[in-house]
Design brief:
By secondary structure, the chain is α+β, with helices and mostly antiparallel strands. About 20% of the residues lie in helices and about 30% in strands. The protein contains 5 helices and 11 strands.
């Protein structure tokens, strides 16, 4: 079936790279998991990971940013299928379709970032990085939740912090979480956590 709501792609664009020399970051990763599709986007400073219950049998593909921007405008459930060889795909919503070549590269191991949340502790974050996180969370809440809720600080850390998106009520979305890298500038020693993130 390979159905992905366009709002998930739209939210991902707020944290995906635009013109990074690491070309594989200039797109959104969609991969299969036992429970359903997982959507991941990162620019190296922040990351969005959304686990869904939506079936996905196309393996692991990186959808390029230009295709993501068109998919985000389709407004609704978008159906993906393979076209010809293993690197070309089609995204279709009610006759509105685009074809794209998946990015041929290795996406960062996002599981290495989110697999040990209990080892993290509070740190400080660049407000401009958090702005994209808040915008992406707003897209997710509007499309899948209904009520405006806050980002929920799960953990913080010297290396990363994780924030869950609260208020998602869509039965197909298992969870959505952001991972944010801390500032390298020591001018901000205090954490800018839950109060600064309230939407």
């Amino acid at each position: 079936m390979n159905k992905i709501p366009s709002a998930l792609i739209a939210a991902s664009l707020h944290v995906a790279s635009k013109n990074d020399v690491r070309f594989y970051l200039n797109g959104v990763l969609i991969e299969s998991h036992a429970d359903g599709a997982i959507i991941v986007a990162t620019d190296g400073h922040r990351m969005l990971v959304v686990r869904t219950r939506l079936p996905w049998d196309l393996g692991k593909i990186i959808v390029p940013r230009d295709a993501c921007e068109l998919i985000a405008k389709m407004k609704g459930d978008v159906y993906f299928s393979a076209v010809g060889d293993a690197k070309r795909f089609k995204a279709d919503r009610g006759g509105q379709a685009i074809e794209f070549a998946a990015i041929d590269g290795t996406y960062p191991d996002w599981r290495a970032v989110v697999s040990k949340p209990n080892e993290l502790k509070p740190s400080g974050f660049d407000p401009s990085v958090l702005e994209g996180v808040v915008k992406a969370a707003g897209v997710l809440r509007k499309a899948f939740g209904g009520k405006a809720t806050s980002l929920i600080p799960v953990t913080g850390g010297d290396v990363t912090a994780m924030f869950a998106v609260g208020g998602i009520t869509d039965a197909y979305i298992r969870s959505a979480a952001f991972v944010v890298m801390p500032m390298r500038d020591s001018a901000y020693p205090e954490a800018l956590c839950s109060d600064a993130l309230r939407a």
